[in-house]
Amino acid sequence: METVVAVEGSEKSKLEGTSAIVITCSDSSKQIADPVVYKLARVEGDGRLVPATDDEVMEVEDMLDDKSSVHFVLDTCQPASNHDTFGQEFMPIDCEGVLKVKDPSTQGGRSDTLFGTTVDLGKLNSQFEEITQSGSTPVDEPSTSTMCVSWKPDFSKLKGEICLDNLSVRELHATFKATFGRETSVKDKQWLKRRISMGLSNSCDVSTTTFIIENNRIIKKPKVEDHDDDNKEPFVGLEGTNVSGSNTSAGQSQSIQMADDLGANSKSVQSESGNTPKNQNQITSEDDNVGGKRVRKPTKRYIEASESENRDHSGRTVSSVKSSGHGPRARVRPVHNIQPLSTSNKPFVTRQDSLGGSGVEIPYVSRIRRGRPRENFMGLMKFQSCETGMTVKTAHNGHDLKSDDETEKQVQKNAPPTGWVQIQQPVIKEAGESQSGDMENDSDEGGHEEEDSDDNNNNILTVPTAKGGMRRKHHRPWTLSEVVKLVEGVSRYGAGRWSEIKRISFSTCSHRTAVDLKDKWRNLLRASFAQLPAEKGVQNSKKQSSIPIPAPILLRVRELAEMQSQVSPDLKALRFGGHNSSGSRNVNDIKSGFL
DNA sequence: ATTAGGG
DNA sequence: CCCTAAT
Questions:
Q1: Beta-strand relationship, A36-43 and A70-73
Q2: Distance CA A462 to C1' C1 in A
Q3: Planar angle of CA A409, A413, A414, nearest 5 degrees
Q4: Considering only CA atoms, which of A307, A268, A272 is closest in space to residue A289?
Q5: Is the CB of A498 under 7 A from strand B?
Q6: Per the count of CB atoms within 10 A, which of A303, A357, A482, A580 is most buried?
Q7: pLDDT value of position A538
Q8: Residue A109 and residue A48: Cα distance in Å, rounded?
Q9: Which nucleotides of C are covered by protein (CB under 7 A)?
Q10: CA–C1' nearest nucleotide, residue A293
């Protein structure tokens, strides 16, 4: 079930000796099993084909996480059909996707191009032609609305909006860096453009990346003709009336510009009435209500902590906290044994009570589920049924990170302790989403052990990592695809609608609560804004304990953030001069009609 | 129950 | 991640 995709241009025959990128898509629950085979090669000016260098391949590799399904085989003359070696893996990005970009150079003169970008799935070739030539794109075909599909490159937005053409080499370098997060010494403009385009398209979302580069700065380019984007970017219209669907065409193109161009403090849209001293106070003490953030009084924890300084620990007032059922948890929850048997032979571990500092040894019971009780086993069941469609990839490029999870999973499967996992529940496909799309590459979604054995694994606090460090048991490194899903979700529903995003985009991830999503987004935000201004002087220096997030994604994050005015003042300050502080409020205000 | 923020 | 305040 493999097709060597058509290679545009005349050089097809010469491809034999070039390097190949094999991308296999083996999500069995999806019916698309058309692996795409790319040959990565460069064509020199004289028409010679030069196999991609290690460096080039690396660059492409960088854009995919290490779990990616892409294997690079350099200089093999093997026919591409010979993909047995590659095992079954998943593409972190779009299965159905077409990795392609509009490339100016393919239409014009030079042929110094990479074949990879002109490769396309045959069935979409015609569309490609149409798009690359005219700007008039067909509206996206009705999306099947799996996450997978939703991330397919959106050609409709591709119309000449990546203006790499006019850039100097220097500017291109900047762009390159922004895209890949690293420098390049290549001076060939075509090459740079090509690479950047590839980078963006490979990030699976060129869709909203409407920007141009100016003075080393990435600037959004106001879209003017947005007839077909309405459903794609609900938040383009920050005016709020058209969060979903209804469309005030006038407002749309402007709102973006507002976000970028309104430099001043349009932040406080207060009533003009009081020109009293209060107004001046507002300017100075705006921080009291930092950007309209919710003000918090010191937490109980904090109060208690400071109180306990002046108090014998035995005199602690437990009652100060609403001890409704479970008093103050010093990270100690009531015992909640669901599966008595499996805990039987586990070492009884004690730990210090962290609250009193009294040194009391208390039996360590791992946390019961925080918050509300687990909905039920649905998530699990769902997960299981999803999981079945997946091929577990192992014995490949050492995935240290999840090795432990993997083994645990194995254990679970081999010896189901309770048997209740056997319960079969009808899988509810939520809005027809995910199901397969979600699982396509999240092969490391442990799921089981977390859900049913967690509470009983009394003894495992941390697990050793490959690098000698200790990782918290519960810490699941975020998959690239999870990140992608998150970003996608935010772009759809807006930052803040975590439960929505959780429900829709993460329906299959039993872990990753809405809070987790929020936290991750916060981190992404930080990362996305930290990277650029820092000139990322030491990109590879710090121990990147977690997978580096591809620059294009970060780019996207930042864009979304700006679009939704999520940029915190600090971060904005971090950027180049006070540039964008839009007066628009966040989505929640819009939602509540607060305008 | 959900969300925002601090730790 | 975890926790809590706020809504």
A1: unpaired
A2: 13
A3: 115
A4: A268
A5: yes
A6: A482
A7: 53
A8: 15
A9: 1-7
A10: B4
**In the predicted model, what is the mean pLDDT of chain A?**
45
- Of A446, A438, A356, the residue nearest A409 (C-alpha): A446
A486-537 pLDDT per residue, tens: 998 999 998 999 999 999 999 888 889 999 999 999 998 888 877 666 555 5
Q: At residue A193, does pLDDT exceed 60?
A: yes
pLDDT for residue A380 is more than 80: no
Q: Which of residues 339-378 of A touch strand B (CB under 7 A)?
A: 371-372
d(CA A169, CA A177): 12
* Residue A192 pLDDT level (bands cut at 50, 70, 90): confident
Residue A179: its pLDDT value, please?
59
| Smallest CA–C1' separation from A502, nucleotide | B2
A412 neighbors A453 (Cβ within 8 angstroms) = yes
Output the distance from A371 CA to B3 C1' rounded to whole Å. 14
Q: How far is the CA of A52 from the C1' of B7 (A)?
A: 48
Q: Quick check: A459 and A419 in contact, CB under 8 A?
A: no
Q: How confident is the model at residue A272 (pLDDT cuts 50, 70, 90)?
A: very low
pLDDT 10s digits, A42-69: 444 454 444 444 444 344 334 433 333 3
The Å distance, CA of A240 to C1' of B2, is: 21
Q: What is the full DSSP assignment across A378-437?
A: HHHHHHHHHHHTPPPP-SSS---TTHHHHHHHHHHHHS-SSSGGG-------GGG-STHH
Distance of A461 CA from C1 C1′ (whole Å): 13
> From the Cβ of A293, is strand B under 7 Å away?
yes
pLDDT score recorded for residue A225? 31
Q: Residue A296 CB closer than 7 angstroms to strand B? A: yes
Q: Are A318 and A308 spatial neighbours (Cβ–Cβ below 8 Å)?
A: no
Q: For tokens 């959004």, what's the residue?
A: A220
Give nearest nucleotide to A521 (CA–C1'): B4
- Strand B nucleotides, any atom under 7 Å from protein beta carbons: they are 1-7
Pairing relationship of beta strands A49-51 and A217-220 according to DSSP bridges: unpaired
% chain A with pLDDT above 70: 16
Kindly report each contact of residues A186-192 with a partner whose C-beta sits within 8 Å and lies 24 or more positions away, as own/partner.
A188/A112, A190/A105, A190/A110, A190/A112, A190/A113, A191/A42, A191/A112, A192/A164
- Considering only CA atoms, which residue is closest to the C1' of nucleotide C5? A296
Q: Which domains does chain A have, with CATH numbers?
A: 11-155 (no CATH), 378-564 (1.10.246.220)
Distance, CA of A229 to C1' of B5, in Å: 34
Instruction: Evaluate if residue A298 carries a pLDDT over 80.
Output: no
Question: Which residues surround strand C, with CB < 7 Å?
Answer: A 294-297, 299-301, 328-329, 331, 367, 370-371, 472, 474-476, 511-512, 515-516, 519
> pLDDT tens digit string along A562-592?
877 666 666 665 555 444 333 333 333 333 3
